[in-house]
Every structure is written in C-alpha cells, then in structure tokens.
Design a protein that fits this description.
Length: 495
C-alpha cells in the first residue's frame, strides 16, 4: 500500500485533454465534439474527452477489422502474444498508483479499494490470460470409426467491449484480456463518466507492443457510440457490463443487424442470508456492512438485501447500524477514508429517491438516507440501512447501486430461499450458518452465479463471474471466458 504523500503528490496532477485511440493513433472526434470529465470528489472539471460520433465508432471497427484480417495479432505465434501481454501486465503493475489515483479522481472509489480492484486486478487479469495464450488449443475428436475430425478453436474477429463506470479497469480487463489473448481485435467503449484510466491503459498497451488497430478505445455517449457498435455489421461479439436496460437494447441491436453474439453482465439484488446459528455473528455483521457500503454500494455483487432470521433480527441489525455509523465517508484519495464518493449527481439523486420510496412503502430508515459533505462540491451519501422492507417493495426488488441496505426478516430456510429468489436477478449472495446441510441446501436453491458461505465478496481471476436470470449471460474471468471469444470449427478428414 503506498503512503499518503505518494497519493497526494498525484491528486492534482494535470490531465491532458484526451482524444480517441483508433488504429494506433490519437485522433479527435470527426465533428470536433468534446465532453467534460467531472470529478465526483468535488464536482471540478478534470479535463475534456473527445466525444465520438457514430462515424468514429465505424472507423474504430474498420481499424480493428483490418488488424484482424491481416494477421498482425490474430496470426502472431501465441507465445509471442503471451510475451506482449505479460509486458502489458508489467506496465499496468508498475503504473498502478498513477492509474488508481487517476481512476479515483474520475469515479470516486475509495483509494484502498481502487488500488486492489482496479490496476491490481487488471494486471492480474492480463497476466492470467497472457499465460493462457499458448495453452488454449483444439482437440482431435474420438470418432467411432477412427475418421480424423479436428476441432479447431479460432479467434472470432472483432470484439466490441462496452463497460460501466464503477470499476473501469477491472471490468475492461475482464473483456479485453481474454479477447486479445485469443487473437481477436477489440473496440472498447468506456462509460461517458469514467474513461480516463482506460485511455491511459491504451497508451500502456501500445507501449507494451500490442500492434496498432488491435485495441481501439472510443469515448462518447452510449446512445451514439454504443448504439453504433451494437448495430455495426462488422462487430462479431459484444461483451457488455452495465444495466439491464442497456443490455436489452444491445440484444435488439444485435437482432436488427448481424445477430452478433451479446454477452451481458448486468445488475443484481443479492441476498445476504444470516441464520441465528452463524459461526460468528460479528464477522457476519461486518461482512454485511462491507458487502453493501464499499464503493458506496456501486458494486454489481453488492449484498444489497440483508435477510436475517427473526430470532436475531433486532440485535444483528443494531450491530450493522453501529458499523455503518462508524464508517468514515469522505475524500476517496485519503487512506483514512472507508467509503468514497457516489459517482455522480444523477446517481446520488437516484439513491435518495430510492430511500424515499422505501419509506413510503413502509420501510424504517434506521440510519443514513441523506446526502453529506455537500460543501465539498462532491457527491457523498451516508451509509443507509432500511429495516422492515416488504418483499414486494421496490427496495427489495430493484437494484439501487448505492449505499442502501434493505433488511427483511425470515422464519426458516424455506422462507429465506423464497425471499432470496424473489427478484428478477440472480447474481450473487451469501449464507451464514454453522449447519453444513443448510449451507449446501440454501446455496443450491438460491439462483445466483456467485454464492458464498460464511464470507462475502470472494473474488479471483481463476473463478467464473456469471449471472443467472436477468443478471446476464456468459462468463467473465477464468478459462471459461474463452468460450465468448473463440469459435469451434470441426474439420472432417478422409484419410
Ligand atoms: P449503463 O448500462 O448505463 O452503461 C454501461 C455502458 O453502456 C456505458 O459505457 C454506457 O455508455 C453504455 N450505454 C448506455 N446506453 C447505451 C446504448 N443505448 N447503447 C449502447 N451502449 C450504451 O450502466 P452503468 O450505469 O454505467 O453501470 C451500472 C450498472 O452496471 C449496474 O446495473 C450494475 O449492476 C451493472 N454492473 C454489472 C456488473 C457485472 O459484472 N454483472 C459489474 C459492474 C456493474
């Protein structure tokens, strides 16, 4: 962990105006459009970004296609791709502090978390897939009559990656690293409000030796650049993380254009289920608070619903409230801060409206529910706990993506499972119990791609990240991610 003076030395560093990265060159938007990058820390303008047009997105796709077809990367020896990707991971690691501070200034995540989850995770991800580059291959099928059937695993072509603002480097790396390791070219679209660290990442990719045109980064509006990518006939795969509403649009774009494959990592309303016989209720309370309040709840797998067995409800919730009230919310670039800024004014307003609605639907706000540190000019919200949330209330069903915990009691395991599965989502969740059978039963019955027992938020590049129900489809992370970025081709040979 760096010392505070090292962070402070970077906190006001000037950030140059940024352009689009297309075909290995930095170019302006074709109509000269620009957008301010605003910091959630204090509302100040950090720099300006090129605001691409649909035509610019098309230029990026053309550059990616040309690079793919001429084989400068797609037909490079896998071991050589591995070497370049390792160099890329080394550069991300050696620039970790710079990348983390830049990202925090742009999106407001507390620096302790950002260091681990952003450059730390991105470097580990790139390194993991670098290692895989010369280890994924085809098969020879065991045909009944011994005829030779070769099953090749091939790069697909041009991957469009569209990512959100909460963890741009981590989620960006989850898409681009396996796509590149398999030999594809990529057009990456960052979120409008958190592009700076990804633009810096593109510079590091070029420095590492990723050939021009293989990785392109286009900043701009979702409904312009993202739509142009979604409808583009020459993008083969869309790899997306973001909201369900945008995910639906991408499926429509695909259907209206070339039926490109769409892999969607969407939101969640993940249940943290605490039984009275949990081995350590204090640890469970700490994890319940961490699971919803870190990064101001702007975490796809946030444990936003706390389901507590009725017999311990009051005492357990009292402890969670106590922990919430003890958290330091403030300057995300201070190492003393537990919780940084909410990403934007719009996000903050949405969070506050969700609390108001919960109150109107019968919930009891035990703590928080308000904006704080308004004088800073930034966007901060007190960690919020709403008790007695009815399963039918909006707060029990809809993702807020803010530091708002919905608490509901349950009588037994059957009721806990029914409550847990009572939303359209199926992303994550946890069970806290000392009863091994209950742990198995509940984790098997709850719909979710990432479940925990007596812990929350376990994460590593070696394990898949996948949603069920309306939390999405397809897998990020682990070797399984290659399914998205490769095609299987069988060649029968008469000998
Ligand atoms: P969002 O859907 O608004 O934006 C995500 C990306 O889509 C951005 O780059 C945006 O510009 C782009 N976009 C917006 N409109 C578009 C359009 N019409 N066509 C094409 N692209 C468009 O989501 P957000 O607010 O940036 O992110 C928050 C959401 O992401 C939450 O719902 C959260 O749960 C989800 N998320 C999921 C995961 C996961 O792995 N499952 C991880 C992080 C965030």
């Amino acid at each position: 962990m760096p010392a505070q003076p090292e962070i402070d030395a970077l906190r006001d560093a000037a950030i140059p105006d940024r352009a689009l990265f297309i075909g290995g060159r930095w170019v302006q938007a074709s109509d000269g459009g620009r957008r301010d990058a605003v910091s959630p820390i204090d509302g100040a303008t950090l720099t300006t970004l090129a605001e691409a047009t649909a035509a610019d997105a098309g230029a990026a796709v053309r550059a990616a296609r040309a690079a793919f077809e001429d084989g400068r990367w797609s037909r490079m020896a896998p071991m050589a791709r591995k070497t370049v990707l390792h160099r890329f991971a080394d550069l991300v690691q050696s620039h970790a502090l710079e990348l983390a501070v830049l990202g925090v200034r742009d999106n407001g995540t507390e620096i302790g978390m950002a260091l681990k989850a952003e450059p730390g995770s991105a470097a580990a991800t790139i390194r993991f897939y670098a290692e895989c580059a010369d280890k994924i291959g085809g098969e020879i099928a065991p045909t009944p009559d011994g005829t030779l059937a070769l099953v090749h695993r091939e790069a697909i072509g041009v991957v469009g990656a569209i990512v959100p603002w909460n963890f741009p480097l981590m989620i960006g790396a989850w898409k681009i690293a396996p796509a590149l390791a398999a030999g594809n070219s990529v057009v990456l679209k960052p979120a409008e409000s958190a592009a700076l660290s990804l633009l810096r990442l593109a510079e590091l990719a070029q420095e590492a030796g990723i050939p021009d045109g293989v990785l392109n980064v286009v900043t701009g509006a979702g409904p312009v650049v993202g739509e142009a990518m979604g409808l583009h006939p020459d993008i083969d795969v869309l790899a997306f993380t973001g909201s369900g509403a945008t995910g639906r649009r991408l499926l429509e774009y695909s259907a209206r254009s070339n039926m490109k494959r769409c892999y969607l990592e969407l939101g969640g309303k993940s249940p943290n289920i605490v039984f009275a016989n949990a081995p350590d209720l204090e640890e469970a309370a700490q994890a319940a608070a961490n699971g919803i309040f870190r990064n101001s709840g702007q975490v796809c797998i946030a444990g936003s619903r706390l389901l507590v067995e009725n017999s311990i409800h009051d005492e357990f919730v009292r402890r969670v409230v106590e922990i919430a009230e003890g958290l330091t919310v403030g300057d995300p670039l201070s190492l003393d801060t537990d919780i940084g800024a909410v990403h934007s004014q719009a996000q903050l307003s949405g969070n506050l409206a969700a609390v108001d609605k919960a109150r109107n639907e019968g919930g009891t706000v035990l703590t928080g529910g308000k904006r704080i540190r308004e004088d800073s000019g930034g966007y901060y919200m007190a960690p919020t706990v709403v008790d007695r949330v009815a399963p039918t209330a909006a707060l029990a069903r809809n993702e807020v993506f803010g530091p708002v915990l919905a608490v509901t009691g349950f009588a037994d395991a059957d009721e806990a499972i029914a409550l847990a599965n009572g939303t359209d989502y199926g992303l994550s969740g946890a069970v806290w119990t000392a009863d091994l059978s209950a742990a198995h039963r509940v984790t098997r019955a709850v719909k979710g791609g990432l479940l925990h027992v007596n812990t929350y938020g376990g994460s590593d590049i070696t394990v898949p990240m996948a949603g069920m129900k309306q939390s999405g489809n397809g897998v990020d992370k682990s070797m399984h991610a290659f399914e998205k970025y490769t095609d299987l081709k069988t060649v029968w040979m008469k000998l």
